[in-house]
Amino acid sequence: MIDRPLMVQSDRTMLLDVHSPSFKECRHDIMAFSDLVKSPEHIHTYVLSPITLWNAVSSGLTAEEIISRLRKWSRYEIDQRVIFFIEDTASRYGEFILTEEDEENLRLSVKREKFFLTLSSDAATMKMMRKGPGQYFLVPRLMRGTLKARLVKMGFPVDDRIPLKSGKRLEVQKKDTFSLRPYQKDSVDAFLEGGGFGSIVLPCGSGKTIVGIEAMTRLETATLILCPNVSAVHQWIRELLDKTTLRKEDIGEYSGESKDIKPVTVCTYQVLTYRRKNGEEEEAEPQYPHFSIFKENDWGLVIYDEVHMLPAPVFRITAELQSIYRLGLTATLIREDGREDEVFSLVGPKRYDTPWGELADKGFIAKAYCHEVRVPLPREMEIEYALATKRDKYSIASRNPLKIAVAEEILKRHPEDGTIIIGQYLDQLEVFHEHFGYPLITGSTSNKKRDELYDKFRKGEERVIIVSKVANFAVDLPDASVAIQISGSFGSRQEEAQRLGRILRPKEKDSHFYTIVTEYSEEETFASNRQKFLSEQGYSYSIEKENI
User: Fold this and answer.
1) How far from the centroid of its chain's Cα atoms is residue 508's Cα?
2) For residue 542, which of 514, 501, 522, 517 has the smallest C-alpha distance?
3) 95 in Cβ contact with 52 (< 8 Å)
4) How many CA atoms lie within 13 A of 368 on its CB side?
5) pLDDT digits (tens, 9 = 90+) for 208-223
6) Which pLDDT band holds residue 90 (cuts at 50, 70, 90)?
7) Can you tell me the mean pLDDT for 344-360?
8) Which of 52, 114, 366, 496 could make a disulfide contact with 511, Cβ separation 3.0–4.6 Å?
9) What is the Cα–Cα distance from 329 to 537, expressed in whole angstroms?
């Protein structure tokens, strides 16, 4: 009897039985055209969407092959609406083909007349192009990315067949002091086989920087690396010097502190989105003066670190970079602003991902246990809380002073472990700093001081540090095994994934992620969203009460 572990539902979600003997084989077959959205201990949930299907078709799969795989593994007959969705959605890829025309224009060919007429009658789209003498449109080169983003929102992905340019040659090799993990090699293979543009989704702590380095050494071209903060910039520079043949004089830092452009330049999103204040002298790019870094250098590769954080203004300039190799790196493509489709159309589709739990089982990232500790609100704050607005209720509950005693108890449980206390509110963090005396890192801490404190933590000279949300992203703290979250951003899934990632570097001991929550409050409501997200990723999640 054939084992059929998959249940395809009419809402286009798919449930996969983890305990099935055919689990791994089935998962391999469906990951090519679906997204893993939940992975708790017994049933994993995948979803079919236009983007997942277009990504699959762009990689060579047909609608018939996708449906055949589903029928092979499905325990029950597949709803005809799902079949229609797959066939209709997949058929749209390849309807719009972008090719070279002349020095000024590109050609957007349209296979079916009805789609040609649909675009011809759309005024907003026709502002970006004009009709040709046949069933095609002429598109100015600078509108290439903007048009692709517009069409994907309309449900029409563009098959962009214009070859990418290599940029200025860069001689760089990996040192033999380390070796690639199998999934790191596979992810870069998928990126290059997909044309050299797209996103790679890997858990925090799994070595996404190594993936970027591997892409650089294979392409051997001048590279611009964009990061969420200066600490991440310095981390990239350290890794490049440690793991490649690049020298200090080959690598430039472009941030608020330095404006040094070299064959490999590492830049912050913040400096790119700097806008002149009223009264400042205007230059060629008056609104975002640092965008010139993209245009005045012969880059062959742009790496977007934490691509899910890509600021809205950078989407604009990314739309103009469609002739360059583009690699997005992230632990989650979840964007709280819902702009995943723009990452898809402008940076490129998801080329590779792998479940967090699978890497933990193989020892590539640490096993982590999540704990929610609930604490009562002090009686003297109950009236203030009751009379507050909904937003203020969350703030009052988050700043609950009884959380200090809970943090003390947690620290006693882990007397030898590297621990991060992380929170949202600066005044709350200051209170913890004054109470415990541990170093505090916030947005106002100078970059030099941040690097010094992070370095002391890595060396074990500081066992506990207190950090604001500046440590959410791209901070390498390999020995951290405990995180105590005392407040967060309204249940943000993105933030939860990143904060958990601070303690996922592989190590001999297990990691523990604690969230302290005020019970019977708005904070508890938002905590349930975070709890659901972590459980869906397959993490053990316990809840306990502290009767203080």
Assistant:
1) 27
2) 514
3) no
4) 33
5) 999 999 999 999 999 9
6) very high
7) 80
8) 366
9) 19
* Separation between Cα atoms, residue 491 and residue 528, nearest integer Å: 8
Which tens digits make up the pLDDT trace of 455-507?
A: 898 888 999 999 988 766 546 666 788 989 999 875 555 566 666 766 767 67
Cα distance between residue 453 and residue 459, in whole Å: 10
Q: In a 3-state reduction of DSSP, which class is residue 446? A: coil
Q: Is 83 exposed, middle or buried (0-12, 13-18, 19+ CB in 10 A)?
A: middle
H helices within 74-139, ranges in order? 80-92, 113-120, 123-126
Q: Which helix (H) or strand (E) holds 226?
A: strand 223-227
Which conformational region is residue 204 in: left (phi greater than 0), alpha (psi within -120 to 50 degrees), or beta? beta
**% of the chain surpassing 70 pLDDT:** 88
| CB contact at 8 A, 490 and 523 | no
Which amino acid, 498?
Answer: Q
pLDDT at 496: 62
Length in residues, the chain: 548
CA Rg value for the chain: 25
Query: What tens digit of pLDDT does each residue of 274-290 get?
Result: 666 554 444 444 466 67
* pTM for this predicted structure: 0.76
DSSP string computed for 138-190: EEEGGGHHHHHHHHHHTT--EEE-PPPB--SB----B-TTS---HHHHHHHHH
The first and second tokens of residue 510, run together, are 């297990």
- At residue 327's C-alpha, the angle toward residues 325 and 331, to 5°, is 175
Placement of tokens 């440690």 in the chain: 242
Task: Check the CA dihedral 45-51-55-61 and report its sign.
Answer: positive
Structure tokens belonging to residue 141 = 């080169």
- First-to-last alpha carbon distance for the chain, in angstroms, is 57
